[in-house]
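cron nightly-structures :: item 1 of 1
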Amino acid sequence: MDAIEISYRRTPKNPLVLKSYINALYEKEHILEAKFFHDQLKNEDPAEFETNRLGYLLSIRVFEPKVADFEKNLIRAGVTQEQLYALHLHYYYTFSQLKKMRDCTNALLDLEPTEEYTYTVILESVIRLKDFELASKVIHYILPRIKPTDELLRSLRHILNDRLLDLLKIRSRI
């Protein structure tokens, strides 16, 4: 047992500890177990922001149609536009809705996001979309704010190189 699980077993009715435990399970990809404990959390703290954010993410992972219910609760809990768009982007990414993914990524980049989760979801989306305009915005807005990995830099460089090759091909036809 790790420290988070030990803490949960000592105080199973504490919503704060339960949220930490569910987050740890989610990060370890123990989705069904996280879903089980999330059901308990909904009984303890149903209207709280983090409860509904976790429910939204878990619903996406288990392909449950309750995402809309969690979204309504998030709005009532005071979710910011950035947080809501980031969750939408995660949804579009998961279900490969490329057009909506591009639109949502563009909207998020226009908001100039500040949260780590938003950065992660944007970066994954831009790399998947291989979109030059979005990659340019990422380089301008997000790259200076994070410590990029070599893999991220390689991926962004690849997107830019592809665009350059496309331009050279067009130029050579003229």
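cron nightly-structures :: done
The two ends are 66 Å apart (CA to CA).
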